Amino acid sequence: MRHRYHCPLRWADLDQLGHVNNVRYVDYLQEARGALFDDLLAAAGVERQENEGYVVVRHEVTFLAPMMFGLEPAVVESWVTEVRAVSFTLDHEIFHERPDGTRAVYLRARSVLAPFVHHAGEPRRLTDQERNALAPYAEEAGPRSRPVLVDVPRDRAERYPVHVRFSDIDIYRHVNNVKYFEYFQEARIGVFLKLKDALRDFPRINVVVAQTDLEYVAPMLLRPEPYDCWSVVSRIGTRSMTIESELVDASGDTGRHGVLARSRVVLVFFDQGAQRSVAPPQGYREAIAEVLGAPLTIPPAAP
Questions:
Q1: 284 in Cβ contact with 29 (< 8 Å)
Q2: What does the domain layout of the chain look like in residue ranges?
Q3: Which residue in 143, 183, 191 sits closest to 164, CA to CA?
Q4: pTM value?
Q5: Which CATH superfamily is domain 1-146 in?
Q6: DSSP 188
Q7: Which residues, 6+ apart, have CB-to-CB distance to 303 below 8 Å?
Q8: Pairing of strands 103-117, 52-63
Q9: CATH second-level architecture of 147-298?
Q10: Which of 23, 46, 209, 240 is buried deepest, with most CB atoms within 10 A?
């Protein structure tokens, strides 16, 4: 059985291309999870505990097609693909149903969650009641979700200061999981601003997000000092590029310590008029690689 949530769209959800912004999809997933938890816990007779909840450990999000604004709500289907001792995994699909019964699918995602005791600041094991509540939504799992491992060399990474706003905080006084997507998005924009002069003589080419893998390592809190987001272009292909990032508490330890979240994002070069991916003109990728010191993936020569 799959849980269905009908999510209304908002005009403010759109980006400069007229598509629903990639961050907003994760907001839709959060709304759908809240509805799912309300339904399954009520059905199992499990009461919410004031100081307990479920925190997101990892998101794996694949964007399949752009979604435009409309009055018809998007459908979010959610189901359980794995239950472990201290975590469980939900798979999701966001779509509109066509009159002929087929689907226009915009996104598929996987979220790993863990039950958490907030006053103690630590996870706990799933109870038998929770396992029984999740069981009706269980389906056969695909490949197991894996941690997001990135390599962000500081010598060629771009630093972006991340300022936490009061409105970014959830009921547990942590930064909400969706806001991390916004932070990484802001940092990517900072990377592209550095390319402005290098790409001045080329036609304007947009990019859209095709895949985002994000792992949460430690909570971010509200404070006046900014956190650091370090981003590096790890690959430039014929129609896409990959940016790897780390959110770090600069006031803590240095080096690999103090990491709060990791992200790997695949961006596709996009023709807005044709609404499809496009290969940039000769020299475009080379210009990016020269400015950012990024490895360039050269396609094999035609036979």
A1: no
A2: 1-146, 147-298
A3: 183
A4: 0.90
A5: Hotdog Thioesterase (3.10.129.10)
A6: H
A7: none
A8: antiparallel
A9: Roll (3.10)
A10: 209
**3, 32 contact by CB (below 8 A):** yes
Q: pLDDT truncated to tens, each residue of the chain (303 aa)? A: 999 999 999 999 999 889 999 999 999 999 999 999 988 877 777 776 667 889 999 999 999 999 999 999 999 999 999 999 999 999 999 999 999 989 999 999 999 999 988 777 788 999 998 999 999 999 987 777 788 989 898 888 999 999 999 999 998 889 999 999 999 999 999 999 989 888 989 988 899 999 999 999 999 999 999 999 999 999 999 999 999 999 999 775 444 558 999 999 999 999 888 888 999 999 999 999 999 888 777 554 444
**Which distant-in-sequence residues (6+ apart) come within 8 Å of 211 by Cβ?**
61, 62, 63, 264, 265, 266
Closest by CA position to 49, among listed 169, 136, 171: 171
Q: Residues 6 or more apart from 23 whose CB is under 8 A from it?
A: 178, 181, 182, 185
Cα 241 to Cα 102: distance, rounded to the nearest angstrom: 32
